Amino acid sequence: MGSNPLFERSLSLRFGCRPAGVLLTLLLVVARASADEPPALQPIAPRVAGESDGSGRTVADAAGRVDPARPSRLSPDERDRLYAQIERDAEELERQGAQLRRLTMLLRPCVVHIDARKPAQKTRGAKAGDEDEAGSGVIASVADRLVVITNRHVVHGAELDNIVIRLDDGRELRPLRMWTDPATDIAVLTITGTDLVPARLAERDGVQIGDTVLAIGSPFGLSHSVTLGIVSAKGRRDLELGNEGVKFQDFIQTDAAINPGNSGGPLVNLRGEVVGLNTAIASNSGGSEGIGFAIPVSMVTFVARQLVENGAVARAYLGVTLDRTFTQKTAERLGMVRAVGARVSGVTKGSPADSAGIQPDDVILEFDGQPIDDDDHLVSLVSVTPTNRNVSLGVFRGRQRIELQMPVASREQFEPR
Question: Which of 230, 229, 251, 232 is nearest to 240 (CA)?
């Protein structure tokens, strides 16, 4: 006689034994009973109201009442087995939770709360005064100097004496020097002190959509708060930020809760490495709605190093005018299936692009080994490219791809400040 898998599973839940063993035992009992005299009748245990009597009917209690939900309830044995399963599952989740606790212990000393007193913006009919703004920052070692990296908008307009950096142990420091870069909204403050712990900055932008990340900062002044989320998207480059705007954008989007006061705090991966600098949120209410943005670590590191070493950021220059409205129709005219990359509409004479042989209607598909999504992506990559070196370009021209080499010059050589 063949076994019934569904029957075996039901036996397993009801009796708590291995299905094959239970099935075999029941068959043997039935076989002996049919060969000998009928088995002696056993007293029937009282049934609970609502429990099936095996015929599909529901048993009533002495008062004739039934519990219609009784068949769907767990038996004591089933509850014990579920508790055992939950305990096993909880151990796995607790191991993950322990990882987050370890990360928090490592990272809290690396994150600072920043208070900045700055002149208030003048409004019609009101006297100008001072206002306090709060944000966050992360301690890092840049060019062999200990610094705090934060957002420019956190400290912009404040004098050094009016900036207070508060550590996780309650100590307060004053910055010795400050540099800012309006084009990326990054600021660097040099500090000195004992037992200062720098964070680990990721060496490259390896974070991917779906990766788990932590955001650490001071939302609404609640210093050293930690939130958890994932990377929701990458390459957000068309955000309208502040009155001055941020020219070079390549934001990471995350659903980790970021609120006012988180600005300048780190976005961290599960290895404890800083992968971004929390900067902005998209919100109708002024609070977190699951759409936060962080500057990727490659841009943060490039700008911070330039500021510490040179006091300003020297950016690469191509010397091309790009088509801001590169359409599907134009792509098809050029022999492309879809509009991808950055179409060149003009070339500055004597520029690096001119020296490399770039022509109008060329579509730059790759820059220094990085595939190009669109014109904003190319601008972002060029903005974090060191000068005085050669880069490779993948270009679509005449319905085919060609490779070019281009010398990278500083923007200041062609566009003086």
Answer: 251
